[in-house]
Amino acid sequence: MSNILKKVQSRFSVAMLSLWGILFSLFVVTGLVDHYFFTISSIGVTLQLAVPLGLLAAGQTICMLTGGIDLSIAMIATGAAFIVSIKSSSGLGLAILYATLYCILIGTINGLAVGLFGMNPLIMTLGMNAVLIGVFTVGITTFLKGSSTMPDIIIKLSSGSIIDPISWPFLLWIFFGGLIIFLLSKTGLGRLIYAVGDNATAARLAGVRVWKVQLAAYIICALLGGLAGLMIGGQSGAVAMSLADSLVLPSVAAVVIGGTSIMGGIGSYTGSIMGALILTVLSYLLATINSSEAVKQMIYGFIVLTLAWTYSKLTEKS
Amino acid sequence: MNLIKIKRQSWNIGIVIIALGLGTWQINRLPVFGSYEVRTILLGILPIALLSMGQAIIIIGGGINLAIGAEAVLINCLAARFMANKSFGVAIVLTLALLFVSVCVGALTGLIISRSKIADIIVTLATSFILIGFAMYIQPSPGGGMNLTLAHLISGKGSAFLPPLIVLILPLLIIWIPLYRSRMGIAMFAIGSNKDAAFLSGVNVDLTRIKLYATGGLFAGISGIVLTAITLSGSPFASISNTATLNSVAGAVLGGVALSGGVGGLTGPALAALILYFIPTILLNYGIDPAYSQIITGALTIVVVLAGGLIRNRGKKK
């Protein structure tokens, strides 16, 4: 037993080491291309930009650990940002309450469909995403009419800095990230999430209400998605339909690069944090090279594939 | 013997009955119904029917291709870019070349999945980015064209509904039926049902999977060419590819293909495209805002997959 444990531990440290290596080499390459990158404020900005992706990846990690996936996270984020920006005229607290309720609602629907009705999570959340796109496309011309600028306090919390490299969003990330790591490694729910992902049948036979665990996972994922949406909205100042679109693949990729298995049961949020940082530095690099959107998409997809591949080979051998 | 045959076809018969019912409803709303309307319906279902068939082959083999829409969009853009103002002969040669390209793209996807052992979802999510990026590079904005003679040969003209009907049925006859009856067909169902058991029985799992993805790519290629013939232009939009992918999965599942693999055929998905076409069309006829069509497609996918799963589970318990 302890032998197996040791093996798992050594595998994780090799994986973690290679993640640090990738991050470091990307960091150096970016710095060589753009000398401005090595300044304190530039690193601060990069960390700040990594926060929304980091939060989305947190939600995705929890879903994937149970063996699921949430592809509706883009519209959950965008929707939450829309609701806050439009309802903030009638009080920020109320707006945030509405957004929270929205996230819980979508998370509950996803979780119940996957947990109770045995829907394929991929299809469920893809379909949910399409439904939400439709709802908000109709909504912004009818029942969600209003200002699309974010309230000042959220702009400050998502892009304001305290002392140069340390920004408000980064502090928030440390807080919520710590909470997630604690949840996954130290609480009963965290253990159940791993158990369900590893073998749902075994977990059910051991007396776990599998659907409740899945429900909780999707609700937590939706709430983190909503928070990420507010961060993205705050960083761009205004809300648009395509707000979080470009972060769906990265959120999945960050988790996969970070070593969480899409089949569930294996992985950690620490890995996903590394994945999010790697992808953020990578998109900074791509932006510096100043390529067209088409080339950016190609390189991005290619690198995500290569990283995932390298990672799986690295962990396989050791 | 005959009863068994009927039972095996019961899913398809069910789809035909639903499609006929919806079709009658729709036809009753039309002021005139003739061969022109038949052609309109055929053109409406053709691209999605072909994509659903391609997706079905891959899902039967135990995979899923989230890049199938992107493959079709890429071929669409390549065709529109290079076929504009070309003679009929050149256009035919280009069509064959593009079909070859789509087979290669599919085979490459299958090869990456087999070699890397990364989950299908991750690989195809990443390749969808690469392919869409490539499509945007080829055709930065909507445009291009196609040789009109070839376009009419594929999509018909005026009230000639035979060409699209042939394009719909021909792949079933010359690709699916030989495939179904070949060793590879048996291998496809085998690896979809239980990959390990198939491997132990001497099936070359990797090679079969590559072939399946290549065949799926061929269907995506035909779909892309058909799309070009219908619209006479290429549109490099990720939203088109995402909707197409979602529809292809919905069509495959509605057509009786189990998402868990190993069950289904291609006639079902081809017929299911009729239902996927009729429901939004009928709803839109009743004066519902076109922006709702997204909601309808998404919700329909969820309901279809849910109902399909429930019906199949009931069948198993008996």
- How far the N terminus sits from the C terminus of chain A, by CA atoms, comes to 18 Å
Provide the helix percentage of chain B: over 70%
Instruction: Report the structural category of chain B.
Output: mainly alpha
Envelope shape of chain B? globular
> Which sheet architecture does the biggest sheet of chain A show?
2 strands, antiparallel
Tally of individual helices of chain A = 13
**How many strand segments of chain A?**
2
Mean pLDDT of chain B: 86
Largest interface: A-B, 45 and 46 residues
How widely separated are the two ends of chain B? 20 Å
Low-pLDDT ranges of chain A = none
How much helicity do the residues of chain A have? over 70%
Strand content of chain B: under 5%
What does this structure look like?
With 318 residues, chain A is mainly α. Chain A is built from 13 helices and two strands; from the N terminus they run ααααααββααααααα. Chain A has helices spanning 2-33, 40-65, 73-87, 92-115, 121-139, 152-159, 168-186, 188-198, 200-205, 210-236, 248-257, 269-289, 293-317, and strands spanning 161-163, 166-167. A two-stranded antiparallel ribbon of chain A has the order 1-2. The relative contact order of chain B is 0.19. The longest helix of chain B is centred in the N-terminal third of the chain and has 29 residues, at 88-116. The model of chain B has no long low-confidence stretch (mean pLDDT 86). Chain B has helices at residues 2-8, 10-29, 35-60, 68-83, 88-116, 120-138, 148-155, 162-181, 183-193, 195-200, 205-231, 238-254, 267-285, 292-317. In chain B, α4 packs across α11, α5 runs antiparallel to α11 and α9 (183-193) crosses α11. At the A-B interface, α5, α11 and α13 of A face α6, α12 and α14 of B.
